[in-house]
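sanity check this:
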Amino acid sequence: MSMPRQARVRALAKINLDLRVLGKRSDGFHELRTVFQTISLADTLEIAYTPSRKTAISLVDDLKIADNLVVRAARLAMEAMRATGRIEMRLTKRIPMGAGLGGGSSDAAAVLLALPALVGRTLGHNPDLPKLTAIGEQLGSDVPFFLLGGTAVGIGRGSEVFPLPDAPAQQGILVAPGIHVDTARAYRDLSPRLTTELQQNKIVSFQSVTWDTGSLASARNDFESVVFEQHRKLATLKKRLVRAGATVALMTGSGSALFGLFPDGNGISRARELLGEVQTFPISLVGRARYRALWRRALKEHTTPGLWPLQSRYSG
């Protein structure tokens, strides 16, 4: 009887250091320009693979999330590798759900990165990065970013991802007020405000952010203009982050989470006092080298060093 190959990995959250919404595309989605950034807040995924003639996938998830992306990711990865086996997973959620932090997408990407390392090379069907990215796009627009990590530009629906030099290491605070934002309504409310002239100005301003992610002086999130109208508490929370001394304070994604970055711990302490009972998390920005180092450490037992995505040491 084969012994299971096991790993415990961290699926990091993301924030949007900048987010611009342009016009509506022919496919019904909006054209986006954004700067993604991985942060230290993370879910934990324990995953075990046992070779067998048939594929069976099970997930222990205390939140019992319906149609969890990690199960779909595992199924698609096994099909891409033309492999079979028993996959057992346990997901521990720490990233607030529905807050614009990409937790579900990161969990799915964690499966796409970890499972090939555990399964091994199967008749030349070990998926390379373009194949993993294609699978990720089927699962969600943010998934491809989590195959890269660090600081990156996302264009199109956000799934076309290009690495940027990492933003400087910074500490901050994440605010999770538990407010549900209707993303479809946010897009609908924003659409009438997207003029051609405004789009051109946005692109120029966005370029300046991507050229200098160290300052983020002109960083913005277009969703704030409509979401804050519906949820005034979010505007108040952002003002408190600014009052505490945040060098940048923004909502992430379409909300409702916000973040503030600070030059030192004193500002973070002030922010916590001003925010009162609202749920907060201390965060740090996680660059691409650190992101990959976390993965290499977690999968060291199962992989050969040096390559990305990590390559399994097992032959099928």
Q: What stands out?
A: The chain is about 35% helix and 30% strand. The longest strand covers residues 30-51.
